[in-house]
């Protein structure tokens, strides 16, 4: 495949150097097929969805629903009713935290999260649980970055009403044992929500095989434009929970005395949705279905990074098959943002800082990390160039 031709942005130069984009865990670049549909949506089909009888509205609605069907098929959800459009993972988890807490959580109850969560899977729960006098319980991670499953098993008691953990940590790049977590929780009748913001990109997600009750992710990390995301939920929960927001499209009948709600999935889709970005799930997931990160990248990066003197790599699972191409590290005597800034001048785009995971930074004993994250459009040569450039930068700084 002509990778640079498929992703127009990769043609550009930064500071006169070829761009090597290694910030994919923050957001992905967009293939031409997605950019073309986004453009055509506005040039040819633009009209608000689900509202009018005119042709354009019908076409726009069909493309929106085709985006939903593409998501349904990609995650193997049983029906379109299970696939709720949101504005992203953060919005999905806020919806869930608000509605699940209102319906199922009372004073003294608990929700289990892990020490390796993104702030999006911590703060919405703190806000919602705080209102009813419930609290968070935290599964620690060990020195490799793996969840302490022995402690998790002991945490499952009658006060736990939900387990909500990342499928894949955005720092550690480790695929958590979600099947085992679901089986353990279900043996106590506890439902499980997965933050799939990273998991959807790097692992095959079959929500029926995993058997989780909820799965959230963002479109922009998996090649759609920004401003669209998904909350997958099992129907019995989506039926029982109250709506999140009120407004247009989510109603059945409205009177001043009483309002009834639209059936799923529209019950949770109040107001004008980002139908353009939603439609783009179809080409984005078509690309994602065929695209794989070069399989030489994980072992090469793990080996080369760990050979660098004074470098601490976070997220080293016993079984390398559970490592995705997200590499976070610090180097003794240097600051992550200094390294990131010099690498930027050499054409490499990386993320540095706490990457929205402050509690995990405390566990690792660092204020921040440097993160290189790869996508299928990164070549193995990108990876070799990066290791060389990092070596040069460290020589300069030490
Ligand atoms: C694991 C994880 N959860 C949640 C989020 C939040 O995603 P968004 O900002 O698209 O809502 C991210 C984004 O980096 C993430 O990596």
* Estimated share of beta-strand residues: 15-25%
Quantity of strands, as a count: 17
Unreliable stretches? none
**Mean residue pLDDT:** 97
Subunit organisation of the chains: single chain
Percent range of helical residues? 25-40%
Characterize the biggest β-sheet: 7 strands, mixed
- Summed up, the domain count is 2
How many whole angstroms does the radius of gyration measure?
A: 22 Å
- Helix count, per DSSP? 16
Q: What is the correct CATH architecture of the largest domain?
A: 3-Layer(aba) Sandwich
> What class, by secondary structure content?
alpha/beta
Cα distance spanning the termini: 40 Å
Which of globular, elongated, flat, extended, rod-shaped describes the shape?
globular
CATH homologous superfamily title of the largest domain: Type I PLP-dependent aspartate aminotransferase-like (Major domain)
Instruction: Provide the list of bound ligands, each named once.
Output: pyridoxal-5'-phosphate
Top-tier CATH class of the largest domain: Alpha Beta
Please give a structural write-up.
The chain is of the alpha/beta class and about 400 residues long. It has two domains: about 5-20 and about 295-395, Aspartate Aminotransferase, domain 1; about 35-290, Aspartate Aminotransferase, domain 2 (3-Layer(aba) Sandwich), CATH 3.40.640. It contains 16 helices and 17 strands. Strands 4-10-9-8-7-5-6 form a seven-stranded mixed sheet, with helices on both faces. It has a four-stranded antiparallel sheet with strand order 13-14-17-16, covered by helices on one side. β7, α7 (about 180-185) and β8 form a beta-alpha-beta unit. α3 runs parallel beside α12. The chain is globular. The relative contact order is 0.16. The mean pLDDT is about 95. The structure holds pyridoxal-5'-phosphate. Pyridoxal-5'-phosphate binds near residues 26, 195 and 218.
């Amino acid at each position: 495949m002509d990778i640079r031709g498929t992703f127009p942005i990769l043609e550009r130069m930064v500071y006169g150097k070829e761009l090597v984009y290694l910030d994919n865990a923050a957001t992905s670049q967009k293939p031409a097929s997605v950019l073309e549909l986004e453009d055509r949506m506005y040039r040819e089909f633009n009209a608000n969805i689900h509202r009018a009888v005119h042709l354009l509205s019908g076409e726009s609605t069909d493309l929106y629903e085709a985006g939903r069907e593409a998501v349904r098929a990609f995650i193997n959800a049983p029906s379109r009713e299970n696939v709720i459009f949101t504005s992203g993972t953060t919005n999905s988890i806020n919806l869930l935290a608000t509605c699940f807490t209102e319906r199922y959580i009372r004073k003294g109850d608990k929700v289990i999260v892990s020490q390796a969560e993104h702030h999006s899977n911590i703060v919405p729960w703190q806000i919602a649980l705080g209102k009813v006098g419930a609290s968070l319980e935290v599964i620690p991670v060990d020195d490799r970055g793996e969840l302490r499953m022995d402690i998790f098993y002991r945490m499952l008691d009658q006060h736990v009403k939900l387990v909500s953990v990342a499928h894949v940590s955005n720092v550690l790049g480790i695929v958590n044992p979600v099947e085992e977590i679901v089986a353990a929780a279900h043996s106590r009748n506890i439902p499980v929500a997965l933050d799939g913001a990273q998991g959807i990109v790097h692992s095959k997600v079959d929500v029926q095989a995993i058997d989780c009750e909820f799965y959230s992710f963002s479109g922009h990390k998996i090649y759609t434009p920004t401003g669209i995301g998904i909350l997958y939920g099992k129907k019995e929960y989506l039926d029982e929970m109250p709506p999140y927001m009120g407004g247009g499209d989510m109603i059945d009948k409205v009177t001043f005395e009483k309002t009834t709600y639209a059936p799923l999935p529209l019950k949770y889709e109040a107001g004008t949705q980002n139908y353009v970005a939603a439609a783009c799930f179809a080409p984005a997931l078509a690309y994602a279905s065929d695209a794989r990160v070069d399989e030489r990248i994980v072992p090469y990066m793990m080996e080369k990074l760990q050979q660098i003197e004074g470098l601490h790599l976070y997220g080293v699972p016993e079984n390398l098959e559970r490592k995705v191409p997200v590499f976070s590290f610090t180097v003794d005597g240097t600051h992550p943002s200094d390294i990131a800034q010099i690498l930027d001048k050499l054409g490499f785009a990386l993320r540095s800082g706490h990457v929205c995971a402050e509690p995990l930074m405390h566990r690792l004993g660092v204020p921040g990390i440097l993160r290189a994250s790869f996508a299928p459009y990164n070549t193995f040569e990108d990876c070799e160039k990066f290791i060389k450039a990092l070596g040069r930068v460290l020589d300069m700084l030490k």
